[in-house]
Structures are given as C-alpha cells and as structure tokens.
Amino acid sequence: MIRIGIVGTSSISERLVDAVRTVDGVGLGPVASRDAVRGREFAERIGAPGAADGLEGLLDGGDIDAVYIASPNSVHAAQIRTAVDAGIPVLVEKPATLTAEEWEGLVAHARGRGVVLLEAMRTAYDPGIRAIQEVLPRLGRVRRVSFRYEKRSARYDHVLAGERTNIFDPALGGSALRDLGVYPLHALVLLFGAPRTIAGARVGIASGTDGLGSAIAEYDDFVADAAWSKITDTSLPSEIQGEDGSLAIDAIDAPRRLVLTPRAGVPEVIDVTAAENPMVGEVERLREAVRGADIAVDQDRTARTLRLVDALLR
Ligand SMILES: NC(=O)c1ccc[n+]([C@@H]2O[C@H](COP(=O)([O-])OP(=O)(O)OC[C@H]3O[C@@H](n4cnc5c(N)ncnc54)[C@H](OP(=O)(O)O)[C@@H]3O)[C@@H](O)[C@H]2O)c1
Known about the structure:
By secondary structure, the chain is of the alpha/beta class. It has helices at residues 11-22, 36-46, 54-61, 76-85, 100-113, 127-135, 156-160, 176-192, 280-290, 296-313, and strands at 2-7, 26-33, 51-53, 66-69, 90-93, 117-120, 142-150, 197-204, 210-218, 223-229, 238-242, 245-249, 257-262, 268-271. The chain has two domains: 2-120, Rossmann fold (3-Layer(aba) Sandwich); 127-273, 2-Layer Sandwich (Dihydrodipicolinate Reductase, domain 2).
C-alpha cells in the first residue's frame, strides 16, 4: 500500500483524497498544514491518519510512501526538492513549477536520486484524451486545432473587491495562464507534440496578473489556437478541424462528449466513459511510477508545456 501524504488543505486536496479512495494499492497518509488546528480539522474531515507540522513534519513522521503537493504555484519547487531529498516520490499539482528550467533541474535531481517526480496533470491521464486519439485518423489531415478552457472564478470577485487571493496573486505564481491555460497547452503537446512557434496576448487584471489570454501556435501543416480565462465563461467547445471532418470537444481538460462531423456527413456523438473524479488517472499513474514504470515521457511533456508557458510570459 502506497501511503500518500497530503500537502495543502484546500478543496483540491479533498478532491485528490476522494480519488485516492477509489484506486487500489494506494491509501491516505497524514496531512501537512502550516497551521496545527487547520491541519487537524482537515485530517478529521477527510479521514486522514493525523496531521503534521508542514511538509518537514510530514517527512519526519516517516509514515508516508509518497506526497501530493497542492500548495500555491510559487511554493512547489522548494517543496519538491525537500521531498525528493528525503527520497519520497512526489505528485505535484499543475503547473509543476514556474518555469521549464526549474522543472528540468528538479527532474534531473530526482532521477539522480532515483525518486519519482510526476506532475498532477489530470488531462494527460483522462480517458477523453484517449477517445480523441482514437477518433483523430477519421478527421483526415488536421488543419486547425482550437482548444479552450475558460471559466470565471468565484475568487475573481475578491480581486474586484480589492482583496488579495492566492490564485490571482503574482507573488505566488497566480495567473490564468498557469492555472487554466496549461490545460489546452498540455493537450496540444500530448496530441500533436510541441509547436514550432507560439505567440500570445494576455489581459491583465487589478491584482497584477493575467485574467485571460490567447495563443496561436504553428505546426508544420496546421495552426492551433488556445484560449484560457478565469474572468469570463464561454459557451464554445474546443475543436479539431481535419480535411475529412471536424471534432467538437465539450471540455479539453476532461473530454466527455465528442461530436464527430464527417465532411458532408451526419454528426456522430461519442460519449466518453470515465470515473466520476477526473483525478483518478493521475493517482493510478503515480502508483505505476512508484512500482517502477518509466515516466520520462510524462516529465518531458510537462517540460514542453512549461516551455510554452515561458514563451507566453516573456
Ligand atoms: N487539478 C486541478 O483541477 C486543480 C484545481 C485547483 C487548483 N489546482 C492546483 O492546486 C494548487 C493549489 O491551488 P489552490 O487554489 O488550492 O491554492 P491555495 O488555496 O492558495 O493553497 C493551497 C494550500 O496551500 C497552503 N498554502 C497557502 N498559502 C501558502 C503559502 N504562501 N505557502 C505555503 N503554503 C501555502 C494552504 O494550506 P495550509 O495553510 O493548511 O498549509 C492551502 O490550503 C495550485 O498549484 C493549483 O494550480 C489544481
């Protein structure tokens, strides 16, 4: 049984714990919090075997076999290093680090020590992405890809009220690109590889970070665009256009309904069967990695995605 310690006491940790419960061979370890009371209450709520004083306390306790890191983005790199130095496998929330260089350095460090380091990019392990891969040949030569993840965050209201909130705080690596933009970019890299070029534009908000943005990327014989937003909603699907047909995708982070429209043909709906919790796949991948699976491809995909983020932030 791989006991996974939890760093961070927000709702995403609860969601991960819910996924852990459904995966064989993994179990829940203690929770790490910077605040003893919050840690204890959180541990009780999720049924974790106790709470520790921060990541260091969790590692000192000696009763975990892996750690899930769900802290603000700017904190990830130092926490990854601390866990890797303790020899503990890491599943770290997206974006794994603030830059590709930081990630590549940590991957090299983890490999040198023989420690698993995996980004919790749930999209990469989603059955909806596999369904798209299966359908792709029916589209003919791909000419345009248009992926989007646009969802207004309730926390944007805090920004509008002049209050600080981590997810929009540039000092903590908060950014719509880093938060939601990484999903369409990661899906692009996974399905089509890294583009030859990428350029973009972003809209700033009062907290000093970006609230939404768009990118356009060149491949050898098609173009791709990506859109992300945490300050507006969209009614548009993502889409792949091929010379023989188009594919509408309801949500690129977790595709559940695909509509394939062949050229001059009748639309075909493809419903994707998936676990209710979209984080199950990343927990399974962590388990495989801890059992010895080679995750170099996963780590490289994270690096390629972060390089696109770097380019868009320059
Ligand atoms: N996969 C997904 O679908 C998904 C969804 C949402 C978020 N995320 C990712 O999950 C991560 C956390 O996001 P979030 O919105 O949950 O963040 P958050 O609420 O700002 O922080 C998460 C936890 O980190 C700890 N923390 C807060 N500020 C900290 C600081 N300055 N230094 C160290 N620890 C701090 C807090 O726990 P304690 O105070 O108890 O220590 C908090 O509960 C981000 O990387 C985000 O991109 C992923």
